[in-house]
């Protein structure tokens, strides 16, 4: 009787072990299935991306877009898909075509690239593509809004500051453009080109679009001379950082010639022209030296 009881107890324990093993195997099987399904999904998504890339390189952007979108449906974890979809939409967009369907391609590209750049803010090529799209689609206010929001989070991003300075200049907003070009010289204070560009912007303003009094319709000399002085300082800083900066010397020469135009004192006019000649001669000497070195 005792043996029978022990055997019965052992059978019950064995049965519990079998059930536990079956449960564990079932769980392991389910986990394996999930892992296999996930792996297959990623593989299928990669196949779609490769197919999309083939169409993209053939400039068949509509077909490329379909495969990228299918890849995203399968597995949306690839951050590059935002960029690829955005680039495909750019490929479909036709500048100067105001058809609503065409404008949707621009909207889609902007949306996708902005989302991508939130994940990969250091991708300068993608940012450049977005800027070009903003310009080609005449979305400059939208571009400025995007970069101002971005710079609140990344105030020291030099590339973004350069972008927004260019956009304000393109929009014709000189005070804002000048403000952002000035910031470039502060962020990139060891780079002579930053000061050169700032000086050129000021020269362009003085020579082509000086501030005008709305009553007399004559240039406001005080403002013009302030711009000239600031431009001279910036160009001189560029030359201090790079003494053989030919382009900066040329523009400094031109800036002094502009100054001579607005001087009312004949003596000061002659002084300005003499300084202009000095910088022009320095620029010529650099050119001759380079030609001599090339011949040697």
Task: State the gist of this model.
The chain is mainly alpha-helical. It contains twelve helices and no strands.
What is the CATH domain class of one domain?
Mainly Alpha
Biggest β-sheet description:
none
CATH level-3 fold name of one domain: Serine Threonine Protein Phosphatase 5, Tetratricopeptide repeat
What is the SS-derived class? mainly alpha
Task: Please give a structural write-up.
By secondary structure, the protein is an all-alpha fold. Among the domains are: 99 residues, Alpha Horseshoe (Serine Threonine Protein Phosphatase 5, Tetratricopeptide repeat); 108 residues, Tetratricopeptide repeat domain (Serine Threonine Protein Phosphatase 5, Tetratricopeptide repeat), CATH 1.25.40. Helix content is 82%, strand content 0%. Helix 8 packs antiparallel against helix 9. The protein is elongated and about 80 Å long.
């Amino acid at each position: 009787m005792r043996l029978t009881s022990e055997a019965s107890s052992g059978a019950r324990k064995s049965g519990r072990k079998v059930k536990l093993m079956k449960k564990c195997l079932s769980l392991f099987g389910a986990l394996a299935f999930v892992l296999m399904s996930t792996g297959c999904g990623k593989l299928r998504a990669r196949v779609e991306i490769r197919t999309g890339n083939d169409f993209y390189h053939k400039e068949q952007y509509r077909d490329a877009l379909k495969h990228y979108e299918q890849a995203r449906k399968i597995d949306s974890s690839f951050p590059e898909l935002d960029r690829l979809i955005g680039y495909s939409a750019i490929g479909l967009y036709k500048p100067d075509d105001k058809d609503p369907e065409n404008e949707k391609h621009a909207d889609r590209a902007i949306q996708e690239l902005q989302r991508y750049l939130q994940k990969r803010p250091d991708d300068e090529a993608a940012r450049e593509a977005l800027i070009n799209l903003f310009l080609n689609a005449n979305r400059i206010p939208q571009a400025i809004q995007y970069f101002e929001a971005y710079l609140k989070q990344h105030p020291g991003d030099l590339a973004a500051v350069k972008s927004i300075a260019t956009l304000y200049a393109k929009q014709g907003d000189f005070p804002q453009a000048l403000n952002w070009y000035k910031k470039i010289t502060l962020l990139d204070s060891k780079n002579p080109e930053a000061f050169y560009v700032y000086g050129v912007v000021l020269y362009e303003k003085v020579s082509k679009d000086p501030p005008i009094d709305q009553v007399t319709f004559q240039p406001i000399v005080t403002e013009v001379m302030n711009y000239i002085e600031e431009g001279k300082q910036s160009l001189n800083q560029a030359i201090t950082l790079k003494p053989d900066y030919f382009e900066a010397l040329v523009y400094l020469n031109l800036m002094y010639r502009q100054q001579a135009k607005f001087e009312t004192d004949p003596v000061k006019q002659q002084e300005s022209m003499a300084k202009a000649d000095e910088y022009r001669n320095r620029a010529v000497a650099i050119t001759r030296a380079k030609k001599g070195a090339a011949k040697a």
